[in-house]
Amino acid sequence: MFTGIIEATGTVVSVENKGTNRIFWIASPLAQELKIDQSISHEGVCLTVDALQEGLHRVTAIEETLSKTNLSSWETGRSVNLERCLQFNGRIDGHIVQGHVDTTAECIDRQDLNGSWEFRFRIPEIFYSLIIEKGSVSLNGTSLTIFNITRDAFSVAIIPYTYHHTSISEVVKGSMVNIEFDVIGKYINRRETGV
């Protein structure tokens, strides 16, 4: 479980396809604090550390994960948002994030507002019932607030700290991002719709 407050960004330094799996080595300032079998959010995707080297950790994405996320497009040099799992001895500054991505969304607009940034994302209309005005969403693992909702799109505003300390600065029109909708909203939606 995570909060959507990014701790660091890492860099993909190696990608290997092995059967239906994709194996990534990631360089980051967090690597020296990690241990094998630890859950880490990578761009909002919960992956398990399966090997460590100096300044690096390795994770494996299986077919199910690759089918629901943008990990199949990751190449060397890509920046990734990283967050270690939540500890229940402090504040939750974002919202409850599981690291279980629901779908990907396409960036359809990006505006520099001279002090902040606004991004707009298109989602499959089937997910419309999971977004609400001023509700939370995890976008590449970052906890953000939704506004300006339509049946197939929503916007988020980005403050300078988030822009400069996460991978959102690399998202451009046409980029695909990982989306996890608010888990509380998903349970409420299921209760009301039975879906």
Automatic annotation (TrEMBL):
It is an enzyme of class 2 (transferase). One of its GO terms (biological process) is riboflavin biosynthetic process. Its EC number is 2.5.1.9. Lumazine-binding repeats lie at residues 1-95, 96-192. GO terms for molecular function: riboflavin synthase activity. InterPro entries: ATP_synth_asu-like_sf, Lumazine-bd, Lumazine-bd_dom, Riboflavin_synthase-like_b-brl. Keywords: Repeat, Riboflavin biosynthesis, Transferase. Residues 1-95, 96-192 form the Lumazine-binding domain. It comes from the Bacteria. It catalyses: 2 6,7-dimethyl-8-(1-D-ribityl)lumazine + H(+) = 5-amino-6-(D-ribitylamino)uracil + riboflavin. Pfam families: Lum_binding. Pathway: Cofactor biosynthesis; riboflavin biosynthesis; riboflavin from 2-hydroxy-3-oxobutyl phosphate and 5-amino-6-(D-ribitylamino)uracil: step 2/2. The keyword Chaperone does not apply. NCBIfam families: PRK09289.1, ribE. Catalyzes the dismutation of two molecules of 6,7-dimethyl-8-ribityllumazine, resulting in the formation of riboflavin and 5-amino-6-(D-ribitylamino)uracil. This is Riboflavin synthase. It comes from Filimonas effusa.
